[in-house]
Structure formats: structure tokens, C-alpha cells
Amino acid sequence: MTDRPQVVTPRQVAEAYQAMSQNPQGQVVLADLMRRFAHNRAPMFRAGHTRPEDCVYQEGQRSVLIHIGRMLDVNPSEIEEVGDEAL
Question: 48's torsion region: left (phi>0), alpha (psi -120 to 50) or beta?
């Protein structure tokens, strides 16, 4: 018997993000992610100090945090009306 992936609705995903943010361990994880990957305390590019591909890599990390922030702000009851593309 093989394990099949559980089907999760967009609403369930949004609820899980919000539950994580209200959990003390989840708050520790979010704070750590922000500390490590937010890159909002310094310019992304400093002449002579950063290669362009490093900026692209850092922007990718930052975009994940933006997604997490959006998921924490969304109203889960409205998710299925909008659909998965809004996530």
C-alpha cells in the first residue's frame, strides 16, 4: 500500500499558516526566517561588494517571506472564492 499525498485546499493552507503564527514555536521559526532571509536592513546591491547573481538569490529568499506575510494577512474564509492563484 502506497501513501498518497493528502489533498489540501487553499483555505486549509491559509489556516495552517495562521495557526503556525499563533503558536510560540511558530513565532520562533518566523522570527528566525526573518532574521536570516529578510535582507531588509541593508541594500540588496552595494557596488563592488555583491555580484548580480547574489542579488537575484537574495530576492528569491525575500519573495518567500513576502508570500508568508501575505498568507498571514489573508482571511481564510475568502480563499476558496478567489482560488489558489491568489496564494
Answer: left
